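Two proteins follow. First one:
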Amino acid sequence: MNTRILVSALALALVVPFSATAASQAAHQQHATAQHAATAPATATQTAPELHKAMRGLWHGHIVATRDYALAIKKGNSAAANKAADAAVANAKDIANAVAGFYGQAGGDGILKLLAGHWGGVKAMTDAQHAHDQAGVDKAMQALTGNAAELAKFLHTANPDNWPQATVEGLLLGHIAGHKAQIQQVMAGDMKAEATTWRSMQDHMNTIADALADGLARQFPDKAK
């Protein structure tokens, strides 16, 4: 797939809502569903299948940990919340290490800082939504939006030919919208709606992971398998 087609495919993903248009209405057991989505065949490309599988696994680890955190906060289970928070941090480090394999330690450190900011925003939004603190939710959303812009710029600078900044930022904003919808639904106890959002988030995460894998495969054909 050439860059122009990739851009079009990514842009199309931006209009997929986190709503009843998701493929499944039924709730699925969390980790089994995440595993299915992470290992499902890539539809955008067959380039570097091992890299695609690895990237999907890493990025799905992020949304599994953040969902675990929201569910634990809703239940008032501080031990589970701490475990999920630790998992979110560990996942960010795993992603950073993967990036360092292509862009060096400085690249890994750079994305780790940005991913830490993303997780911090998601955590703050979760805590604020649980506390019925709308001002806190709005502040977290503002921080997440700014972080998305920084992350898109970082990725575009690293791989300008394959990761258009505006398109990457749009995909990240869609991801943030998924977090926000999911957190609201979990805190409201609306798990039927959350099941739909969860499926949409997984599909959207596949789109992001595949786009990143495609870009890496083009930029580093000797490393990507």
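Second one, unrelated to the first:
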Amino acid sequence: MNQSEIDFFDALAPTWDENEILSTPERVRSILEKLKISKGMDILDLGTGTGVLLPYLSEMVGDMGHVSAIDLSEGMLTLARKKYGNLNNVEFLKIDFEEEQIPGKYDVAILYSVYPHLHTPADTMEWLFKVNMKPDGVIVIAFPSDEIFINNIHHERKASHDHLPPAHTLAEIINNWGFRATVLAATPEEYIIEVKNDKN
């Protein structure tokens, strides 16, 4: 991601939480409960932003689990640390995960409200599976809304690189890359795709 894009997210950080009205506790819990996260797991929160998922993930994996919260925006990470830096099983890392390697191996990698901002999604998934995912690890693409809402927001902010297709369409695209994508939810409130690697 280039510096202008990083500056964009840094500038959004101070008002992000007050504008993020869809990630209610009920909706976030509903999404995460579909991901089969359990105690002791290692979770990768890619593009954590201000950390909306972190208290839930921390609770779900417990003391024996670990959550790596990754973002390239220092502004976003500063707010996430301020809110959730007291969580002992959460680590904060400033990394451009499309350009830089992430340490560790993970059971689940979550792209929550992140996918449209990826420049090279196929290559990024390939690299994550090769380097960061455990043998049965999965990558999850999730949003607290459908693609219509997301595309309208990105159009207003002029922030997206790619139009977000409907969940079943995106799953077909990902399958054509050689992965196995399953739509877990496609409603006005939830957009969830689970991706497994069949290339091993």
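SUMMARY FIELD: The beta strands are 42-46, 66-71, 90-94, 106-112, 133-143, 179-186, 191-197. The chain has seven helices and seven strands.
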